[in-house]
Amino acid sequence: MENITENVTENIAANCSIDHRIHQTLSPVVYIFVFVVGLPANCLSLYFGYLQIKAKNELGIYLCNLTIADLFYIFSLPFWLQYVLQHDNWTYDELLCKICGTLLYENIYISVGFLCCICVDRYLAVVYPFRFHQFRTMKAAMVVSAIIWTKEMLTSWFVFQHGEVSKDSESHMVCFEHYPIKSWEHSVNYYRFFAGFLFPFFLLLFSYCGILQVVRKSHGTQKKKKVQIKRLVSSTVVIFLVCFGPYHILLVVRSLLEHSCVFAEKIFNVYHFSLLLTTFNCVADPVLYCFSSENTYQFFFKMGDSCLKWLRCLRIETMESYQLNTPETLRKNRAPAEQEEPGLLNKL
């Protein structure tokens, strides 16, 4: 019975005529922006994560893993860019489609996992600074990181059991797109919503509420520092909701209501816009968890100060060389010679 249902679903999907215009207009702009901005930003983030690991800080392990997941997805963006520019026609083999699709989806949930690790580590450090020290070690961070990667790879292996390249109504080979969604995708979507988004969101919210409560009661913390912590916490929650919230809500909506091509056509643009929002996570991660730290700020301040000093010295040298070549300078240089000329004439 399940095989018959699956065949019917595939036949309906083959007849779905969906307008992919959003892929030719908005998607290329987002992919190019994220690639150009996210690649150098994540490389710098990886460097600062390495410095933290060198300093025996367990946060460096989480930051490096988070950055590696972002870089993997960024390296797959050229393939997705070519895919959308060719009107959603996958010209490579199915294995590469599975790899790129896995990098797309695993970036979301590996990023969510390590964001939760970072916020829980901060929560334990601020709320319980002298307890749970065994959970804030380099060894514990490596074990947790291995668990997150293993869990997501097992989820990918389950998805790999199904074919991810299929033909649409225009005979284009589409990658990781089924309209309407197939029966096996329902359970995966519910798992992604509850385990991959809802539970981490409440964990994130609980941790940061605890941090804010302790910071508010602290009398030794400077007011400027408190404002900085509050902004960082609120920005993290907002970016988490903006990047991942719409996509996961639409996952549940599709699983509940998408049974025909009519609904798939209506929700296509909104769903893919929410999927593009998750891509901005690759830019938001290094900005929040690397460039917002005090050490990194001082590093860029020193580097900018050095550049300004170099430009100032270059400007002074240019002005001095310009002054040496001005007519007034030439006149002053000629003045002694002109004063000597009458004496020479008299002698003659």
Describe the fold and architecture.
By secondary structure, this protein is an all-alpha fold. It has 2 domains: 2-292, Rhodopsin 7-helix transmembrane proteins (Rhopdopsin 7-helix transmembrane proteins, Up-down Bundle), CATH 1.20.1070; 311-347. Helix content is 81%, strand content 2%. It has 11 helices and 2 strands. The chain has a two-stranded antiparallel sheet with strand order 1-2. A hairpin with a 5-residue loop joins β1 and β2. The longest helix is centred in the middle third of the chain and has 35 residues, at 183-217. The protein starts with a helix and ends with a helix. The relative contact order is 0.12. The model is unreliable at 1-14 and 337-348 (pLDDT under 50). It comes from Sphenodon punctatus (Tuatara). Residues 41-289 form the G-protein coupled receptors family 1 profile domain.
Give me the secondary-structure topology:
Elements: H1 2-15, H2 21-54, H3 59-85, H4 94-127, H5 138-160, E1 165-167, E2 173-175, H6 183-217, H7 223-257, H8 261-279, H9 281-289, H10 294-324, H11 327-347
Antiparallel strand pairs: 1-2
Helix pairs in contact: 2-3, 2-8, 2-9, 3-4, 3-5, 3-9, 4-5, 4-6, 6-7, 7-8
Give a short summary of the structure.
The chain has 348 residues and is mainly alpha-helical. Helix content is 81%, strand content 2%.
